[in-house]
Amino acid sequence: MLSQISSSIDKPIRLVSKKKILLVEDEVLFARAVVKRLQKAGFECEHAESLHDARLLIKQFEPDMVLLDMRLPDGNGIDLLPEFVAKNINIIVMTAYGDVTDAVNAIKLGAIDYLKKPIDLEELLLIIQKNEKTTELQTSLDYSRQRDTLANESVQLIGESAAMQSVRQQITRIAQLSALSDAVQPTVLITGETGTGKDVVARYLHASCVNHDKPFVHVDCASLPAELIESELFGNEKGAFTNAVASRPGLIESAEDGTLFLDEIGELPLGLQAKLLNVLERRMVRRLGSTKERPVHARIIAATNRDLYQMSNEGRFRSDLYYRLNVITMQMPPLRDRSQDVILLANYFRQMTEKRYALPHHEFSPTALIAIQQYRWPGNVREMRHQISRAVLMCTQPVISEHDLGLPQVGHLPAGPAAAANEAQLTLDGAEKAMLLSALEQARNNVSKAARILGITRMTMRYRMDKHGISV
């Protein structure tokens, strides 16, 4: 028991943060000693001798913690517990009567700990310190989860092309499977070129499923240091290796019952592929240096820009792991195959950049829109995001020109409606008319939708259609 700890500790315990503590205690001499010791340890401390005084101080002082005696002149301290718990205040109860019944009831009502009198002051400080660390860790975890939840909720899949409609349909089906059963969800493998948005799809998939309020842990297998990757993934016990000064969970454990996203899974060393396969098969993980196995409840999503089938045939990727990952496969199309989405994405990134940096509204010039459609975007959506953001940030005029984009020159226009702006027609008016016709075709003659594609208002769209004699 902590109550057996001697009060003759040489160095007093000091806490970095200055917290407020309310002591509710009717024994004046004992209360003075406690207040003095807590103030010496760096706390702000107030003392109440009754339930009535405590109710007054709780409003004025707004404490972070309450040290609450059970037997008070005007009632039992347990009567105050619901009021304190409702205000998210941590409570440690104190009782001088060997019977622990009151303490057990207090714990059930929300108290974090209890002490039996006579109370050792250093023991009290140790318990407060332990509670402070626990509270900080929980607050950090709650913040992290809230941040990840907000990040996942804000994820959007931009695009109306057939390829993106197919991706959405697959996500909807996977979300339905998640809702139908509590069984372990099948693994999902997302493939595609670099920059096609595999990580966005993984987050969107997580946000669409029933576990969207649970952790989303993103593991970049390509960036983890080779000498640390095993402990990062699986965790370790204290002393498992030279620098293992404390036990710590790995990223697999940290996903809890949320989602573990293994990005660039093709870069995982062969030796660790066998351990990962074991985790996927048995849904158990064992930390380095431990003999205890812990269950894995997280959904597993993997992504790669490599051809894992070919790698497995060449012996560079375990075939059994490939087949275990390849339960549900989603192929992300390159941007060059999503011509219908190009202008839509460009306007989305423009608007996001303007919003993020509180910039005024911009528009793309007709020739800039043609350049965006002509360009092949070898870096896919990621390249477009950076190029458009740079153009918006550096452009000092309300209209972003082709020059502002900084894209390589293309010698010919793409096939389709934009081809109407041939070399003889490639004037500003001709280019503008070509873009209007292209947007209207994509929107199936829906003027409002075409205006959104071009990033202009419906009124502006109508004005420019009239200007060029375009009717639908």
From TrEMBL:
Gene3D superfamilies: 1.10.8.60, 3.40.50.2300, Homeodomain-like, P-loop containing nucleotide triphosphate hydrolases. The modification 4-aspartylphosphate is found at D69. Residues 20-132 form the Response regulatory domain. Keywords: ATP-binding, Nucleotide-binding, Phosphoprotein, Transcription, Transcription regulation. InterPro entries: AAA+_ATPase (IPR003593), AAA_lid_NorR (IPR058031), CheY-like_superfamily (IPR011006), Homeodomain-like_sf (IPR009057), HTH_Fis (IPR002197), P-loop_NTPase (IPR027417), Sig_transdc_resp-reg_receiver (IPR001789), Sigma_54_int (IPR002078). Residues 157-393 form the Sigma-54 factor interaction domain. Pfam families: AAA_lid_14 (PF25601), HTH_8 (PF02954), Response_reg (PF00072), Sigma54_activat (PF00158). This is Sigma-54-dependent transcriptional regulator.
